[in-house]
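Thread: "does anyone have the structure for this chain?"

Original post by V.I.:
We have the sequence but no experimental structure in hand. Need at least a predicted one for the grant figures.
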Amino acid sequence: MKINQKIHTQIRLQNLLFTALFLVMVGLAAWLSTRYSSQFDWTAGGRNTLSEASSKVLELFKEPVTVTSYTRENNRTLRDQISDLMGRYSRRNKNIALAFVNPDTEPDKTRDMGISMDGEMVIAYQGRSEKVQDFSESAITNALQRLAQAKEQHLLFLEGHGERSPLGQANFDLGQFGEALKRKGINIDLLNLAKTPEIPANTTALVIAGPRSNLLPGEVSLIQEFVKKGGNLLWLADPGDQHGLQALAQQLNLSFLPGTIVDASTQLLGISDPTFALVVEYSHHPITESFQEMTLFPATVAIQSGKDADFHATAVLHTLARSWTETGPLKGDIRFNADSGEKEGPLNIGYALVRENKPAADAPQEGDGKSAAEQRIFVLGDSDFLSNTYLGNGGNLNLGLNLVQWLSHNDQFINIPAKTAKDVSLNLSQAASGVIGVSFLLLIPGLLIGSGAFIWFRRRNR
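Reply from O.Q.:
Generated one for you, tokens below.
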């Protein structure tokens, strides 16, 4: 086709119009990028995305949260790391705001805040604040959860009778569980009724964790009076003697079946100890709402609840059908024997008891000065599952945290699991490492060179 002057002019106008439209589109895209942002996390396990636990915590904040990081201006690497980490929070909740303070230019403010390291963050919400020195999602989320609790939680653990201690580091103790509670902002203390013959009025919940010697009658009376006045209680029992707490069980209208639960299902998981019991299905209850983790209970006693108009009892935890209460020796060939009074599964091992709280004037008070509208008690037939030895099995830790949050009337914190580190390591055998090395250093380059030479020779001989 012959191009005349008219067609040439039209082509030039089309090119100019295309260029102008292209520049307009680029400008619009640049403008939109300043107003809207989008990110995609393609890393293994979503390492750069907030966990479900962190997202649930952020839903609790309806007012501004100020995060101040005391970082020097010349430490750009640390500032970028903190900005990237807190950006994940602010994108999920617009109430999260990050600000930097240079300790070199504002030394008085830094000193007044007690800052001891470069990059240390102070998170403030509703007049309360938390310091964070660990630049990780777990540390920040735990700090936010502590700030979200408007009232102080005081959890008292009974001691003096061989109970498991939340401060102890022995395999028998609950030290690791105690540390997890502290990270959630729950205050822990010990109570010896022989030294302090009263239960403080600000007690959020009393914990009885597997006593191994008898309580004095006066101590049992104090606990019964605490329950009568509307106090919340977590009782972790064990098979065998209840060490003077039979009166408390009668008050709660509960009874412990003779023997220790044996669960044949544990053999499928390679557990040779017959006294371990599995719980894989849970009743509908706030404690176990959306809880899907398996929990493991060593040396457990079955519990029965009578009909009581005072407390409403719900069996929350129960074993599988292939379990029973073994009353004979726990060694050798163990079989179910109905003639000896053994009960076949499923068996209830955890009861939640609630009733409308009508306390007296000196009843335990919540942090806001008002009595809880509902008294909550949980009785579980095993105290080993939260010990340092077994806490890491399945969902034991998260179940324990849910129990405490429910007893503390913090239902909004239930099912916010403890943050666990993702496995991002790759361990290869020496042979696998050698194969990968040879493949990338020799095999793949050889194939590329060979294919290139073949194509070159083929084209040359055409």
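V.I.: this helps a lot. Confidence is low (pLDDT under 50) at residues 359-371.
O.Q.: and The chain is about 30% helix and 20% strand.
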